[in-house]
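In practice, a research group might receive sequence data for several interacting partners and want a quick structural hypothesis before committing to experiments. The following worked case mirrors that situation: the sequences arrive first, and a predicted assembly follows.
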Amino acid sequence: MGIKIDLEKCIGCRLCVKACALNAIEVIDKKAVIDTATCNLCAACVEACRKYAAITITKDHSGSGVDISQYKNVAVFIEQRHGIVAGVSYEMLGEGRKLADRLGERLIAVCIGSAMQKQAEELVKYGADKVYYMDGEVLTHFSDERYATIVADFIAETKPAIFLAGATAIGRSFIPKVAARVYGGLTADCTKLEIDTERRLLLGTRPAFGGNLMATIICPHHRPQMATVRHKVMKPALRNEVRTGEVMVRRFENGAVAERTKIVDFVKEVESTVNIAEADIIVAGGRGIGKPENFALLRDLAEVLGGAVGASRAAVDAGWIPYSHQVGQTGKTVCPKLYIACGISGSVQHMAGMQSSEFIIAINRDPVADIFQIASLGIVGDVSQVVPALTKAFKEKLGK
Amino acid sequence: MNITVCIKQVPGTTQVKINPETGTLIRDGVEAVVNPFDEYAIEEALRIKDRIAGTIVKVITMGPPQAETALRSAIAMGADKGYLITDRAFAGSDTWATSYTLARGIKAMGETHLIICGKQAIDGDTAQVGPGVAEMLGLPFVAWVRKVEEISERAIRVERLMEEGYDIVEMSLPGLITVVKEINTPRMASLKGKMRARSAKLVMLDAATLQAEKGKIGLTGSPTQVLRSFVPERKSGGEKVSGEVPQLVDKIVATVLELNVIK
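A structural hypothesis for the assembly, expressed as tokens:
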């Protein structure tokens, strides 16, 4: 394992020196020299030197002891909440189908729940070649330990090459446990998945640093190649009435997994019935809307449009709306088709949570607000006047 | 009771800038800070310490030698003891290898009743190390905790933030929780705390002390690799309109209807 500089390629440009967070690189006699005692192999310099390709990082050995040729097929986790298959699961089926076709392999849906055999069978119509359904009364509600054990056992038995799950509160909670147990390579919160057909590798692209940097991650020597995938990014599978496939039902034995956590209660909290992570339209408010009561105006607009209400950190911190509505780096990351930012100035942290929205409309009194830099349509105006008029106009247009 | 808080040193978020030519992060002069979510974790541990007499709060981090400043920041807030896992052999760790290494470190610290992590670090944004550590230690785990309702040495009752509300979850201890921002407001370090932090002796842990398996640490032990990284295409601002309210409204309505997004 180590980092090497090809002295013939190095021109002493110092780009690597600037890229190094640890100040481990110096240029001596027009050639870069790396202090290997300080370097943590983060590869920032390799990126910086992409043009000259003078820096390479190599591993001691390339194998993990895993025979990767044993692993085949694409598996997707089907998330259900209160017995209903979550929207994100259809996106996993749609994307999983594409990847399986690229590889010429099968798509397996893994569903965990109670009395859901009908829904499990339906998954075939949405692209699954095989459905693995684990049924048990105690599986109605999410449990990290039970779900992790069921999925890890499934992986050990079935050996899928790729395993996908939605990057939801549930998926991002228990899938890392599965990866830890099976020694899989897990890439979090992917926004793009591709296949390198030559090496038969999954390429998972994901945002880091609050969306300021994108990284493409691979898992060359371990299996499965796992990824959690952000909602609303992949196209959902379409129903095909004539598709056929195999459904395997298993009964969960209650004593099989020691249960050390217990859900005592669930309290629904989001004011509007639309979950902001899954909403197609979000109307969001910041401190610039003037006063907490003005969130009512935003709610009215969201209702007419069939959307959800979001908020900036400033509005949440001021106590104007609960935290579950917060969009941004310390809140939720959303990518709706339409994001209407009302009285939001556009901090780096807020934009990190919504800049991948398909279309952004910003309404702000301040003509130089940062939000306008990323807004597809910028409206310089007073939210308290524009929004109610907008709601009224939409009501008329849509006949509501 | 004994509480362990896992923390990470990250570049200060607001200062992260990207070099548009090379597509890399400009780290010159960027101050290193304690990951903000980990500050909530430290604060929650300190609040439990305030409630339950005799509680000891230990903080642990893995990183280069300079990550010790993160531990000192936690001690300045009120943590009792700091552990730094640092070794060249750990360089290049992904979330799997990091979880493994931190779990080894926590084992070396003695009995722990509760481990608290921030929900994710703001540089990697993976949220995978908390659950990974729980799994490696064979402990029960609850993610996204927004409130600790009750706690004893044997059990904890928490609120877990979900997409549409929250679950109330009971877990036996020892166990691990990851916390979200809503849980508290971290305290500022006191002058006395800062003085104590400056002179605090940290426990250093390397690969040999942890008896870490060579094949499971650092770059070699990491299943995932970064193939490439790049700066995403920034959305550039589109049309900007000002004028009378009716005109603005007409403009928005026409634009939205054209998008065809209303069901």
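Before designing any experiment, note the following. The first strand of chain A starts at residue 2 and ends at 5. The domain at 2-58 of chain A is CATH 3.30.70.20 (Alpha-Beta Plaits).
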